[in-house]
Amino acid sequence: MKVALIQPAKDSCQLVPFTMGYLTSYLEKHNIETKFIDEASHDDVEKTLSDYQPDFIGITCTTPIASQAYRLIKWIKENTTAYLVMGGVHASALPDEIFALGVDSIVMGEGEEALLQIIKDPNRYYKQTVDIPLKIKDLDELPSPAFHQMNIEKYYVHARRIFPKSLWRFAPRNARVGSILSCRGCPYKCIFCVNSKRSSPLRFNSVNRMLSEVEYFVSKHKVQYFFFPEDDLFCNKKRFLSFAEELRLRYPKIKYYAQSRAISLNDEILDAAKRSGCVQIGIGFESGSERILNYLKSGFVTVEQSKRAVELCKKHKIKVFGNFIIGAPDEEWSDVELTRRFIFDNKIDDAAVFMLMPFPGTELWNRCLKGGSISEKGNNWEEWYLSSHNFSICNAVDKAKHIQFADTINEHFQYKNGDISIKYELLRRNVRNFLMKRISETIRLLKRQ
20, 370, 406, 411: which has the fewest Cβ within 10 Å? Predict the structure, then answer.
């Protein structure tokens, strides 16, 4: 029996594909021959499938890559006889749409055990959604992601050189960057996140497991910088303090970027982070407006707590990357201005602004469906891309004003923190736009005369 697992992609990937990596290693652990195919690292999916001839094919699907996944499903159904399984947030949220494409089974939630059971008994689960919780509290019981099947050099290792416009500007252009994911689940209920509608207990890898994966990247790929993609590296204080101390002792030259929530940070954590090599922390501030922040975050953080987090990071000389969201349904322009003031009054080191997107499977999706601002059917998933600004669900502010605000803030920080090539590109475009505007004004003036 042979299984192929596919990571579809809209473009080149900046992150190690942890989900499919864990699924691959889990099947291998159960002696199932498995090949991981990653379109994001430029694997030729169609050729590989034709050569490999798998009995089962699994595809992951989030909304931003749904159109690519649908394209692959069509090709698979026309050119293979493999049993086709789809998982991921998008598939879990829209099972009727996915089954209509010809998919044989859909995995809901965590996929390791569900996928294994489908492979063992496909007839039992044919045309069904399958939700078999992985009853593992200690994540160390799972094997590490199948790094041996990934072309790691095409992911984060050359991040700044391959992805000059990447938001992760914490590492120098020629630095080698690695990434490990060491927890699952989230205790918070942000309405724009899938965790707002599903229950996934917060679980962690041990410090020793984290260090073993750091060692893999350091010894195998000569990594100098790390990106920790979990939502909050610091939420388990005891584990982080232990990890930080061991990281400092074993790898004193390693630098890293971590993500956190404002309410998780304090002097003890930030002192340990700084001493262990943390150079930047990314925080989802979302808004400088208390009213909008309450809507997005369900009231578990305040603007004052966000300001305090920035102050603490600056005290410990750790840079702050702020993520912000505009375009809530009843957001006023005064709310947007509060976000602008938060960014610049608090001297955020780097930032990105995104339009609010109601992705399937989130509480926001459900609210927008009820309100009639979106439809469950007939969506062009090509438009559902976080940085595309293709549409707005805000009733109070014109979409064009929101886009202009986001573009202005994003370009400011791209110019401030980007490579020289990005600075040159932005400067050239701004000069061109300025000259074109002046020429147009001059022509209009001459016509009046």
Answer: 370
pTM reported for the whole predicted model: 0.90
* DSSP at 188: -
How far apart (Å, rounded) are the C-alpha atoms in residues 59 and 20?
A: 9
Burial of 219 (0-12, 13-18, 19+ CB in 10 A): exposed
pLDDT beyond 60 at 307: yes
User: CA-CA distance, 368 to 60, in Å (whole number)?
Assistant: 25
DSSP assignment of 129-155 equals EE------SSGGGSPPP-GGGS-GGGT
How high is the mean pLDDT of the chain? Answer: 90
- Convert the pLDDT of each residue in 152-199 to its tens digit: 887 766 655 555 556 678 888 778 889 999 998 887 889 998 876 666
Calculate the alpha carbon distances from 379 to 59, 190, 271, 423 in Å.
Answer: 20, 23, 47, 36
> Which among 401, 422, 404 has a CA at the least distance from the CA of 413?
422
Angstrom distance (rounded) from CA 34 to CA 5: 7
- What is d(CA 32, CA 266) in angstroms, rounded to the nearest whole number? 46
> Rounded CA gap, 403 and 394, in Å?
12
The rounded distance, in Å, linking the Cα atoms of 49 and 153 is 23
Q: Which of 1, 56, 5 is nearest to 32 (CA)?
A: 1
Tokens read off for 50: 């034709």
CA 305 to chain centre: 24
What letter represents residue 177's amino acid?
V
Please tell me the distance from the alpha carbon of residue 71 to that of residue 89, in angstroms, as a whole number.
18
Map tokens 């001839």 to a residue.
53
CA dist., res. 246 & res. 440, Å (int): 62
Rounded to whole angstroms, the Cα distance separating 131 from 304 reads 40
Label residue 279 left, alpha or beta by phi (over 0 means left) and psi (-120 to 50 means alpha).
Answer: alpha
Q: Which residues pair with 6 in a beta bridge?
A: 37, 59
Residues 351 and 409: beta-carbon distance below 8 Å: yes
Q: What is the pLDDT of residues 322-380, one digit of tens each?
A: 999 999 999 999 999 999 999 999 999 999 999 999 999 999 999 999 988 888 888 88
pLDDT at residue 38 in the model? 92
> What's the full length of the chain, in residues?
449
CB 178 within 8 A of CB 157: yes
> Which residue is listed with tokens 């953080």?
301
Cβ count near 70 (within 10 Å): 17
- 270 in Cβ contact with 244 (< 8 Å): no
Number of H helices, E strands in the chain: 16, 14
